[in-house]
Design a protein that fits this description.
Helix content: 40-55%
Order of helices and strands: EHEHEHEHEHHHHHHHHHHHHHHH
Shape: globular
Strand content: 5-15%
Structural class: mainly alpha
Radius of gyration: 25 Å
Largest sheet: 5 strands, parallel
Length: 450
């Protein structure tokens, strides 16, 4: 249960969060900068500066949420980096102001949060618009999280036991968790043993002959050992362990049950409760691979990389079919070392992220080349265009719809299809045209002031 919501109270946005929480009888706290803000009813300590207060709140909170409300100046980036680099010591997530409440609720459930810390990263310390946005943001969050928020709870955020040093956390027990965190091959034998145990437990329960079970187990074991040898060099997504051993078990079972009578094969539906047993219908877009690309793009770990997610949506929507648009976008994307991963070289090297992340995220489905190839298959169809009516009446409305789709894509699976993505790409190319500055606002942070 979430008992306390705290913030350092160092700008108007964070004060708006405290006010909104108090309206809903949620116990608040933190280091509020000005004494006159004690009327908010929060328990405060002496304000010792933003940097010190941020780190102290980070120590006592179970989860810290960094909310970006607008484009940041260098001071804002410094504050974000100061907290973000401590994520190995405490749980920290980054979100944008629009459409992130559901993800935070999931994180609170996953981490068992009792004290939740909000940090507002905003361009102007005294911005009324940021205050209104953050008040609405917290209101939406508290509505989504109402089953796990305790009203009028005791103040526990300032308990002495919570003031722990910011040391790196110990690895969770188990070879899978240890390997996920360290990528150390010394844990691979343990991972392989766990996978063999899981396969054995699954197969021995199947309603088939004992000798056939042994053949399936042996075949699946060989497959899983070959897969595990690749793990140290392949990017791993969420639930990679379960997906890997289950895939090997399914492939082995399918190979060995073909000789069984039809009725016996039907009995193997016992697998359906745990594995994807049915063979999906073939699709010209290679439905499984395309859907997997969409799932990776919508993964919550990309929430702080909205620009990168928008770029991926453009790839999947068929950006390459527009020579003007793809040329401009290619020119904007440069690795930190100054080398481009795309077809063109670029003289610009001032974006805040590296497109190398595209390859890292999409390792399992063929990197950026596979994304571009999938996008080429997604042709824009005017008759199936979900944005057409908006585009015919309001350019501003179209721009707003496309902006929100990039966030809604993370949680609405009905958007994960070629029709939506092709239309998204088509109309974004229409909006931006050959305006490089406008493209930069969609697929890369603005140039930082020199």
């Amino acid at each position: 249960m979430i008992k306390n919501i705290i913030t350092p109270g160092s700008n108007t946005g964070e004060l708006a969060i405290l006010r909104e929480a108090r309206k809903r009888n949620v116990t608040t706290g933190g280091w509020v900068k000005k004494i006159r803000h004690q009327s908010l009813g929060v328990h405060t300590r002496d304000y010792t500066g933003q940097s010190k207060c941020d780190l102290d709140n980070l120590r006592v909170a179970d989860l810290t949420v960094l909310i970006t409300t607008d484009d940041l100046r260098p001071d804002g980036w410094n504050r974000k980096e100061r907290i973000w680099k401590r994520r190995q010591c405490r749980n920290v997530v980054c979100v944008f102001i629009d459409g992130e409440q559901t993800s935070i609720v999931r994180d609170c459930l996953r981490f068992g949060v009792e004290v939740l810390n909000f940090v507002s990263l905003q361009h102007n310390q005294d911005c009324p618009e940021a205050s209104r946005k953050l008040a609405r943001f917290l209101s939406g969050f508290l509505e989504d999280a109402s089953p796990i928020v305790e009203r009028k709870a005791p103040s526990i955020w300032d308990d002495a036991a919570r003031f722990k040093p910011l040391r790196k956390r110990k690895l969770l027990p188990g070879p899978v968790a240890n390997f996920s965190r360290t990528n150390d091959r010394r844990f691979l034998p343990g991972v392989a043993q766990l996978a063999r145990d899981e396969i054995f437990q699954l197969v021995v329960g199947l309603p088939i002959d004992q000798s056939l079970k042994r053949q399936i187990i042996d075949d699946a074991t060989c497959k899983i050992e070959a897969e595990i040898d690749k793990l140290a060099t392949v990017g791993r997504q969420r639930n990679w362990f379960e997906n890997t051993w289950q895939k090997c078990a399914v492939e082995a079972a399918r190979a060995h049950v073909k000789s069984l009578p039809k009725g016996s094969r039907a009995d193997l539906s016992v697998l359906g409760g745990q594995l994807l047993w049915k063979t999906p219908k073939p699709d010209k877009h290679d439905a499984i691979k395309f859907r997997q690309m969409c799932e990776i793009a919508a993964d919550t770990r990309l929430r702080q990389d909205r620009f990168l997610r928008t770029l991926v949506l453009l790839y999947l929507g068929g950006l390459g079919r527009s020579k003007v648009a793809s040329g401009i976008v290619d020119g904007l994307l440069v690795e930190r070392e100054g080398k481009t991963i795309l077809k063109r070289k670029s003289k610009s090297s001032n974006l805040k992220y590296s497109p190398k992340e595209v390859n890292e995220r999409f390792q399992t489905v063929g990197k950026s080349d596979a994304l571009i190839e999938a996008g080429e298959a997604n042709r824009y169809d005017r008759l199936q265009d979900p944005f057409l009516k908006i585009a015919e009446t309001s350019r501003e409305g179209l721009e707003a719809e496309l902006f929100y789709m990039a966030d809604e894509f993370r949680r609405r699976q009905e958007l994960w299809n070629p029709k939506w993505l092709a239309a998204f790409c088509h109309w974004l190319c229409f909006l931006c045209g050959d305006d490089e500055t406008l493209w930069r606002s969609w697929v890369g942070p603005p140039i930082s002031p020199k």
